[in-house]
Amino acid sequence: ALVSPALDDLAGRSVVVSAGGTREPIDPVRFLGNRSSGRQGVDLALAAARRGATVTLVAANVDDGLVPDHPAIAVRRVETTLELRDAVRDAGAAADVVVMAAAVADFRPATTTTHKIKKTSSGPAPIELETNPDILAELAADRLRGGQVVVGFAAETGDATGDVLAHGREKARRKGADLLAVNEVGADRGFGDVPNEVTILDADGSVVGRGSGTKSQVADAVWDAVAARLRAATT
Ligand code: CTP
Ligand code: CA
User: Fold this and answer.
1) What CA–CA distance (Å, rounded) separates 56 from 137?
2) Residues with CB under 6 A from ligand 1
3) Residue 203 zone, left/alpha/beta (φ > 0; ψ -120 to 50; rest)
């Protein structure tokens, strides 16, 4: 349904949105990364600003052309997962809402060389990885500020062990975030400009909202669910 959201239901609220995809350096010229453009996070930031919030956008490797220039949006650029974590927690300490829309690298190279790795006749050496912190789970566990609403995003496909929603429910319970927006991805869903479909779950895995359409419409569905929680907490 195309109900236009209240213009000011986030007025006076401070929100942090992470966007893009983290990059983990292997050597001075190479990294481990992912294909996230940052569009969903940017649209979340713009939608929040439109609804009255003061926004910090923590942008991980988002193209310059995509980063919004808006008086209510402060942008902090980061590259790696550890930088993203620091920036999100720093801005999150005073925020009413933190939304983790960034695609965070699950692993990073255990060491980064200061010189470029050279091609040798003996073939490549394996790259040892270590696990990155789970920023969303940490935010949910630590609660940087009382009453803060912590939101995650999950792109899922169905597989032999369960459908999209089953995986989403399991993730919602595991992460402990207040809200998890679960997005079905596949050959023709979730990437690029094709319409998105999200189901919004609470920490128990119950469905509390749905959104579909453009990333901007999905963003408004997420803020609808967030605004409902903020209202519930203050009444
Ligand atoms: N996330 C995070 N820190 C990580 C990994 C993920 O904060 N190290 C956040 C993402 O920003 C997103 C949510 O957790 O909001 C879900 O990410 P996802 O990659 O789907 O979850 P994982 O727990 O990494 O599970 P999977 O094995 O499916 O990748
Ligand atoms: Ca992951």
Assistant:
1) 20
2) 100, 102, 104, 106, 132, 134-136, 152-154
3) alpha
Q: Reduce the DSSP state of residue 215 to 3 states and report it.
A: helix
| 2 neighbors 46 (Cβ within 8 angstroms) | no
Task: Pick the closest to residue 226 from 61, 17, 35 (CA basis).
Answer: 17
Model pLDDT for residues 72-85, shown as the tens digit of each residue: 999 999 999 999 99
Q: What is the ipTM of this complex?
A: 0.99
Q: What is the pLDDT of residues 4-57, one digit of tens each?
A: 556 799 999 999 999 999 999 999 999 999 999 999 999 999 999 999 999 999
Which amino acid is it at 162? G
* CA 12 to ligand 1 center in whole angstroms: 29
Single-letter amino acid, residue 153? F
Which of 193, 132, 162 has the alpha carbon at shortest distance from 182? 162
Looking at residue 186, the DSSP 8-state letter turns out to be: B
CB 94 within 8 A of CB 12: no
Q: What's the Cα-to-Cα distance from 190 to each of 15, 212, 215, rounded to whole Å?
A: 24, 11, 9
Q: Which residues surround ligand 2, an ion (CB under 5 A)?
A: 106
Say if residue 2's pLDDT is above 60: no
Query: Where in the sequence numbering do the catalytic residues fall?
Result: 34
Q: Residue ranges of the alpha helices (H) in 51-155?
A: 81-92, 135-142
